[in-house]
Amino acid sequence: MRRAIYPGSFDPVTNGHLDVIERARKLFDEVVVALAHNDEKRPLFSLEERLALLRETAGKIDGVRITQFKGLLVEFARAEKAGAVIRGLRAVSDFEFEFQMALMNRKLDAAVETIFLMPKEDYTYLSSRIVKEIANLGGDVSSFVPTCVAKALNRKFTR
Ligand code: ADP
């Protein structure tokens, strides 16, 4: 069983994340989408809301499991018996941070390999942050996120 972890904040999940998950699924028997607890990030959606949106979207893909984790990613990967961590690379701007994280994780556990996947070109400019900004300004986000996410964003921003 070849298993990979796809960690992230998913605040909220976008079509870019889903594209990466589908690509990862072609390489691994199981992709574990793991919502990281990170209090510093002050998310728009609560952990439960983000998990529910992931379950409703990525969770419907065969061979994809949704879960959450606290603490060190490499320890979580070990506990899950996963040999790889998936990260998405959109542009050069992602590179420096991702490179640092990948090498630090390798120092912590050399057995866990980080694999970078590039999304479809249409999604290279997409991020959870920009989707939230557009929705907050009343823009249409329906081509960037699944329908349930667009609805959840509308609910958050209609006061
Ligand atoms: P994090 O807080 O860990 O960066 P995100 O949910 O923002 O969590 O992103 C999780 C992973 O998905 C990261 O590797 C990020 O680069 C990648 N990612 C986010 N949006 C896209 C996208 N549009 N295309 C490809 N990868 C993406």
Short description:
The protein has 159 residues and is of the alpha/beta class. Helices cover 42% and strands 18% of the residues. It has helices spanning 15-27, 47-56, 73-79, 92-108, 128-136, 147-157; strands spanning 3-8, 30-36, 64-69, 84-88, 113-117.
Describe this structure in words.
- This protein is of the alpha/beta class and 159 residues long.
- It has one domain: HUPs (Rossmann fold, 3-Layer(aba) Sandwich).
- Helices cover 42% and strands 18% of the residues.
- It has 6 helices and 5 strands.
- It has a 5-stranded parallel beta sheet with strand order 3-2-1-4-5.
- Strand 1, helix 1 and strand 2 form a beta-alpha-beta unit.
- The chain is globular, with a radius of gyration of 15 Å.
- The mean pLDDT is 95.
- It binds adenosine-5'-diphosphate.
- Adenosine-5'-diphosphate binds next to helix 1 and strand 4.
